[in-house]
Amino acid sequence: MSAKRLDQVVQATKTAFVFPGQGSQKVGMLAEIAEQFSGVQNTFAEASEALGFDLWQIAQTGEGLDQTENTQPVLLTASVALWRTWLDLGGVAPKYLAGHSLGEYSALVAAEAMSLADAVKLVNLRGKLMQTAVPQGQGAMAAILGLADDQVVALCQQASANAEGSVEAANYNSQGQVVIAGTAALVQAVMAEAKAQNGKAIALPVSVPSHCSLMKPAAEQFAEALEQTAIELPRIPVIQNVNAQAATDVAQLRQALTAQLYQSVQWTKTMQYLQDQGIGYIVECGPGTVLSNLAKRLPNIEKTFAIDSKSRIEDALNAVLVAEGKIA
Fold first, then answer.
1. What's the angle, vertex CA 73, arms to CA 45 and CA 183, rounded to 5?
2. Which residues are catalytic?
3. What Pfam families does this protein map onto (predicted)?
């Protein structure tokens, strides 16, 4: 089954798709849905051919899945496979797309801004550059819960003042949930102070401190690869991580993807933007339910869906068609 193009499907008016980032991967992802829909295996074969190694085997066995340069292309390919399945089954194209961190690349492939082959090559390189930018064990990330955004920023600034290294807000995920990243010792200091201020702090099992200034060396090298990659303006607006806006030209898009490596993911503002545009339905296109669970808390989101199994994708297909007035 070949993937449909966007000019072959009807576009929704109040549905957005969101694509998850690193951390949503799991061993055996999409195994059940791949048995039902041949497009999943075809998509993995296409991506594997571009990279020269078997992404499906990594996804199913877990061998090497925790290595960032493998995690990123595997997760991107899984998300694109689900997107193609959605369109092939008659799903409507959403009004907007957004992706959390790595998920922004999945969104750009879905929007036909770049090819799957180019995207998996980019994120494979992205993972390698991120891994080498900070020596193993010197960086860390943690989720801070229960404090206001400005409180977390202040704690990071206090910890970084007159210290070797830095710690910063990396992901603004939702109200009361901010992920910090930076030098390991300073991340620990912010965690301790957050707990002292009646917040919660959870260390994240990552090997790379993403979306902070420690990634600037990686971003400089990555910018060169982006310049050499064919990119077009998305055919569906993709809300970018760094500014919660859609790019208006390709140069701006490239610049935002470079900055995304060392600037905060503005997910809270991204979801607010979608709500302001009248979006009421969120479909998470990738393994897991992290982003759809975050969206459930939002006041103007009527319904959220995950589509990483046969039953889930069928339920979402029907519900969105009804919500969009395509079927009674």
1. 165
2. 101, 211
3. Acyl_transf_1 (PF00698)
